[in-house]
């Protein structure tokens, strides 16, 4: 089942973070990618929280969440319209109560990065290993 794509939009609000998590969980269940579901849900939650926290000052009311399955890789992308602040991996002081989201993304993913969007904003992309589930493979014949 390689080559699937799912695109969703969520309003930039705190209530959208659990909705984005549940959306990722449901899509990955449908795609039979349970082995990466927990990591993908956590990553989607962190990225959606970053949008709600930082991108509310952008020009749009929504953020996009894209899931793509390609050749053993799950690509998760979160896009927003806030272009003035690109996410950066940093090591917060032990006393800080926030700022660890991208550390989790970095630890759980094969690769991740940020790219500017045409017009305004950015997309944070994440790659997770998503090998084909043996139960979903078709036997030749």
CATH top level assignment: Alpha Beta
Q: Outline the biggest β-sheet.
A: 5 strands, antiparallel
Main sheet strand line-up:
1-2-3-5-4
Which stretches are low in confidence, meaning pLDDT under 50 for 5 or more residues running? 134-141
Mean pLDDT level: 84
- Based on the coordinates given, report the CATH architecture: 2-Layer Sandwich
How many domains, in number, for the residues? 1
Secondary-structure content class? alpha+beta
Question: Could you explain the architecture of this structure?
Answer:
By secondary structure, the chain is an alpha+beta fold. It has helices at 16-30, 34-54, 101-108, and strands at 4-11, 62-70, 73-80, 111-116, 122-129. It has a 5-stranded antiparallel β-sheet, with helices on one face. The two termini are 17 Å apart. 28% of the residues are buried. The model is unreliable at 134-141 (pLDDT under 50).
Which secondary structure elements does this structure contain, and how are they paired or packed?
Blueprint: E1 4-11, H1 16-30, H2 34-54, E2 62-70, E3 73-80, H3 101-108, E4 111-116, E5 122-129
Antiparallel strand pairs: 1-2, 2-3, 3-5, 4-5
């Amino acid at each position: 089942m390689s080559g699937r794509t799912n695109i969703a939009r969520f309003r930039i609000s705190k209530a959208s973070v659990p909705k984005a998590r549940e959306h990722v969980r449901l899509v990955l269940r449908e795609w039979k990618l349970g082995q990466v579901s927990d990591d993908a849900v956590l990553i989607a939650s962190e990225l959606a929280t970053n949008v709600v926290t930082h991108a509310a000052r952008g020009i749009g009311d929504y953020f996009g969440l894209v899931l793509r399955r390609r050749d053993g890789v799950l690509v998760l992308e979160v896009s927003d319209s806030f272009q003035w602040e690109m996410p950066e991996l940093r090591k917060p002081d032990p006393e800080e109560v926030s700022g660890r989201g991208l550390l989790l993304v970095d630890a759980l993913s094969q690769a991740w990065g940020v790219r500017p969007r045409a017009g305004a904003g950015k997309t944070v992309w994440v790659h997770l290993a998503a090998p084909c589930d043996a139960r979903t493979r078709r036997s030749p014949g």
